[in-house]
Design a protein that fits this description.
Blueprint lengths: L4 H5 L17 E5 L11 E5 L4 H10 L3 E6 L9
Antiparallel strand pairs: 1-2, 1-3
Length: about 80
């Protein structure tokens, strides 16, 4: 089970990227589209614990998902 402890540490302005979700993000899903982006470029979708797996599967099915980190571990240069 994924802990919701990270959810409480997320800044209020970082919302989940899932359509219609207004929950604070706990996770940063780093991805890139290799046909559009340089190999080292990372875009970021934010996810709450509830939508993390769905968004990872969506990106993964397209070959875009690179990794997932806690919101607090995102670098200022991410996305």
């Amino acid at each position: 089970m994924i802990s919701d402890d990270l959810h409480d540490d997320a800044p209020d302005d970082l919302m989940c990227s899932a359509r219609g979700c207004r929950t604070s993000a706990a996770w940063g899903l780093r991805w890139n589209n290799p046909t559009l982006h340089a190999p080292d470029r990372r875009k970021v979708w934010l996810a709450c614990s509830e939508h993390r797996a769905h968004l990872e599967q969506y990106l993964g099915a397209r070959g875009f998902h690179r990794d997932t980190v806690a919101v607090g571990d995102l670098e200022p240069t991410d996305g």
